Amino acid sequence: MERGNPPQEPKGNPQMMNGDLNSNPNMKSKPKIVVIMGATGSGKSKLAIDLASHFPIEIINADSMQAYQGLDVLTNKVPVQDQKGVRHHLLGTISPHVEFTAKDFRDCAIPLIIEIWSRNCLPVIVGGTNYYIQALVSQFLLDDYIEDQEANYLFNLPGDKKPDFELELEPIGVNGDYTYSHLKDLDPVAANRIHPNDHRKINQYISLYIRSGVRPSELLQGNIKENWGRANNFRYDCCFICLDASVLALDQYVDQRVDCMIDAGLLEEVFDIYKLNADYTRGLRQAIGVREFEDFLRRCTSECQNPSEAVCSQNSNAKQFKEIMRQIMDSPIENQQKILLTEAIDKVKLNTRRLVRRQKRRLSRLQMLFEWNIHYVDVTGCLLSASDDIWIVDVVEPSLEIIKSFLDKNNMEEARSDCEVMKSAHRDLWTQYICKVSDASSILVPSPLVFFSFFVTAKL
């Protein structure tokens, strides 16, 4: 499958990019990064841009759909004029036709972090795609480990025991893919861990079994099972800030934002990439807000008598298309087109609200199961009031204090009483955990980490 090309990694040891960073003999070897997480609509990008007024930062986008070129309104990319001159990376740079996986993101982001540090700036990772962030900060990426274990397994097998069988599974589709059902039949434990639409992993796991005769779940044993995803094995010193809000506030904000997107041209964007019977499991078409309009656009195109009409032509003028959509929405007549359009918009809102809940559950899992020290900042009041003053007091100022503490404290380790208990607890990485997320707004106490001298001058 076609892949995006990651940037070239700068030459030189990432630990030795700056002399002033190495002048402190007590400095830890891991470089620092800030990660801003949270559910969609919580204000992650806005906070990151505001932080640039106080710290020398560059932003790396960690939203899987915002990484792609196109659909700027639908994916809610920050417009250039709102970026306030802050440098952004991996924002609208990936071809919409490729599969940009967590591994691809990691391989792009690591050299970018090195480059950002070489400019004496602080890398700030911003996004709601938590598995991207997990792949970046954790040195144990399961995909890499499976490939390594497979190679080791085959290498160590005696010559007369090399697998010479072929699994009787027929690939389907134009790309010769296997299905999620194939994997469930073969290895239900492994299938339970991944998303049914993650075709790359489905193919990888089944191909592994075909070549080695070993189920993927059987490879993840011992040290990798204990260390994968845990905070004490991060490749960076991380400061995690999560913008949290009540589910009701997020639901209300999401509904309003979808309406604003419709007014800003969401339908025109979706129409531009509309393709009959398209694959909505790959690339940019996975974004919420694309597939939901399939029935509506199909009806519009099928009812056109003249191929040159605006709704039928993929080259139709955007203004004409917008006018047609507006006429449908404003019409007092409940015709089939209007019903389908209203249903599509409601589906976008519903699926976005569901995404919010999934994101909150996953963030809770990272903290509870993997001991991530996440600092929660409550944005409920900001979503309900849309006041700049409340935003500064409730969100920006607490975040500044968290980051300042993260950068200022030297060689201090804060013990957590439940750490050893959690370390001894049994964890099964192949199980899908469901964690109920409360709407608590308290800020967790940060674990003090190392201080780099040039950040002392941060303007607070």
UniProtKB/TrEMBL annotation:
<keyword id="KW-0067">ATP-binding</keyword>
<dbReference type="GO" id="GO:0009691">
    <property type="term" value="P:cytokinin biosynthetic process"/>
</dbReference>
<dbReference type="GO" id="GO:0006400">
    <property type="term" value="P:tRNA modification"/>
</dbReference>
<dbReference type="InterPro" id="IPR018022">
    <property type="entry name" value="IPT"/>
</dbReference>
<dbReference type="Pfam" id="PF01715">
    <property type="entry name" value="IPPT"/>
</dbReference>
<keyword id="KW-0547">Nucleotide-binding</keyword>
<protein>
    <submittedName>
        <fullName>tRNA dimethylallyltransferase 2 isoform X1</fullName>
    </submittedName>
</protein>
<dbReference type="GO" id="GO:0052381">
    <property type="term" value="F:tRNA dimethylallyltransferase activity"/>
</dbReference>
<dbReference type="InterPro" id="IPR027417">
    <property type="entry name" value="P-loop_NTPase"/>
</dbReference>
<dbReference type="GO" id="GO:0005739">
    <property type="term" value="C:mitochondrion"/>
</dbReference>
<keyword id="KW-0808">Transferase</keyword>
<comment type="similarity">
    <text>Belongs to the IPP transferase family.</text>
</comment>
<dbReference type="InterPro" id="IPR039657">
    <property type="entry name" value="Dimethylallyltransferase"/>
</dbReference>
<keyword id="KW-0203">Cytokinin biosynthesis</keyword>
<feature type="region of interest" description="Disordered">
    <location>
        <begin position="1"/>
        <end position="26"/>
    </location>
</feature>
<dbReference type="GO" id="GO:0005524">
    <property type="term" value="F:ATP binding"/>
</dbReference>
